[in-house]
């Protein structure tokens, strides 16, 4: 068994695993889309005119979920900074969002671990949304067209954060291997960035700026992760705290205790080459799953190499 086979043994969460953050993210987007589509159909069968139905659906439903550019409308609806990145009732919009989340998220899950996908998505969407509001109010050309600019919807900025984060980690990762050996993902990402950049000088410039800022956030997240700073740690602590409220009998294993005592110790606990044990191997594979292969220490990487020869 070689090293890559060992890494893949338990590296990826199963498709139906309730801890698979990638699948969870796709499911949340799908639930929003199905719910909005169902409500939209109710509106259209409740009115004689399609235009009237569309108007009421927009005013009574979408306007409370999408992110408005006008600050006077936004502040009373501050929750739209979160809901907008999951809001779409366009079939092509949901297909595009889910496809690119899966395409880039699948690679990111392998490179950076399962736990970083949702924080990157949320950070990208959050700061992308703020950039949308600021650009629409501070750039004169966009401000003049604010009344004609629709509210921001969809996970464009959040998906761009995942795409840039993935490209930052592995720019030479190749997709479509049957096409001349594969296309590096940096080429695909560059196309997206170029399209958004060219769109800044249009009526939808605020959307493009939101996407680009989302990409910047994805880049910064990975750079901080490489330096050992996990911007998503507080989110995981919050989830565990909420989980404890509803499941008081559930005991959480303190995260990081074992790593503080051993994995991140500056003093080697022993110099003797460790024997390959299944328990230690499983622990390292779990660590790769949660934090990514790049977070392993040199000693742990050597252990995996030894395991690849012994197993």
Report on this structure.
The protein has 311 residues and is mostly helical. It has two domains: 14-234, Rhomboid-like fold (Up-down Bundle), CATH 1.20.1540; 253-310, no CATH class. It is 64% helix and 1% strand. The chain is built from 15 helices and two strands. A two-stranded antiparallel sheet has the order 1-2. Helix 2 runs antiparallel to helix 6 (91-112), helix 9 runs parallel beside helix 11 and helix 10 (185-199) runs antiparallel to helix 11 (205-226). It is globular.
Give the key terms.
two-stranded antiparallel sheet, Rhomboid-like fold, 311 residues, mainly alpha
SSE sequence, one letter per element:
HHHHHHHHHEEHHHHHH
What percentage of the residues does DSSP assign to strands (E)?
under 5%
Per CATH, the class of the largest domain reads Mainly Alpha
Strand order in the sheet with the most strands:
1-2
**Tally the helices: what do you get?**
15
Low-confidence stretches: 1-11, 255-265, 267-273
> Which bin fits the share of residues in helices?
55-70%
Largest sheet geometry: 2 strands, antiparallel
Estimate the global geometry from the Cα principal axes.
globular
Structural class comes to: mainly alpha
Terminal-residue CA separation: 6 Å
> How many separate domains?
2
Radius of gyration: 23 Å
Multimeric state of these chains? Answer: single chain
Question: What is the typical, i.e. mean, pLDDT?
Answer: 82
**CATH architectural name of the largest domain:** Up-down Bundle
User: Can you count the beta strands?
Assistant: 2
| CATH fold description of the largest domain | Rhomboid-like fold
